[in-house]
Automatic annotation (TrEMBL):
It comes from Chryseobacterium defluvii. The keyword Chloroplast does not apply. InterPro entries: 26kDa_periplasmic_antigen, SIMPL/DUF541, UCP029033. Keywords: Membrane, Transmembrane, Transmembrane helix. This is SIMPL domain-containing protein. It comes from the Bacteria.
Length: 244
């Protein structure tokens, strides 16, 4: 008899505890659901203030020293030309010389590739410029055929554009995106007859830099366009607020 009473008491106590836990779970669930999550956007357009440009030139000769001497002559022609266009000597950087052995090759009667006898050396060197005089380097890259007309076998690359004050731009965008998100949250709360409570969580997206009015895709790790002088940056901020 006493055992039955004890068992009933234990069961009743367990039932009461269970109701308490369920009530807390429902309360906590409702509390966690009583939030607003919004995403704000911050954008900024700007013009690049730093440009990089490069080109390469090469010489071929069966004698390595002769190839070096001929490449040195071309290097001086290029350097003098750049100086004549107002480029500072400190902005001109020549890379080390890349040396490749060349061989005459052919396909035999069975169609197999055969590397034949040595035919000479190919020496290639790269010249690069980094400058804040964007317009000057742009003009230089467009008129580089003047070097070719001087007998230099020269290949020019497209310029790359950068912005040295990106940190300040990012701060402006974060402020704009945060303001945008908060205004959205306030409007949602107002329309639902509630008021905005404390900020619970803030998550910042990655910065995306593209050419204005382009169809460039955003990437998970962030896009960084270097081919366009004019740029548009954007960033998102996700805010989660408690709703009262």
């Amino acid at each position: 008899m006493n055992k039955n009473i004890i068992a009933i008491a234990i069961a009743a106590l367990g039932f009461i505890i269970g109701l308490g836990l369920l009530g807390n779970a429902i309360k906590n669930r409702n509390k966690s659901e009583n939030t607003i999550s919004v995403t704000g956007l911050g954008t900024k357009q700007f013009t690049s203030d730093l440009i990089t440009w490069s080109g390469s030139f090469s010489k071929n000769n069966v004698d390595l020293k002769s190839a070096y001497d001929e490449l040195a002559i071309d290097r001086k022609i290029i350097n003098d030309y750049l100086i004549s266009k107002g480029i500072k000597q400190g902005e001109i950087v020549f890379s080390s010389v890349d040396i490749q052995k060349q061989f005459r090759s052919y396909n035999d009667s069975n169609g197999n590739y055969v590397q034949g006898e040595f035919s000479g050396y190919n020496l290639t060197q790269k010249v690069s410029i980094e400058s804040k005089e964007v317009a000057k380097i742009e003009n230089l890259s467009r008129n580089i055929t003047e070097i070719i007309n001087r007998g230099v076998e020269f290949t020019s690359s497209a310029p790359n554009y950068f912005y040295t004050k990106l940190a300040s731009v990012k701060q402006e965008m974060i402020a704009a995106a945060t303001k945008d998100a908060k205004e959205r949250a306030e409007k949602i709360a107002e329309n639902s007859g509630s008021s905005l409570g404390n900020l619970k969580k803030a998550t910042m997206g990655v910065i995306q830099i593209t050419a204005p009015n382009s169809n460039e895709d955003y990437s998970y790790g962030g896009t960084f366009n270097t081919s366009s002088k004019e740029k548009e940056a954007s960033i998102t901020i996700k805010l989660e607020y408690q709703v009262n």
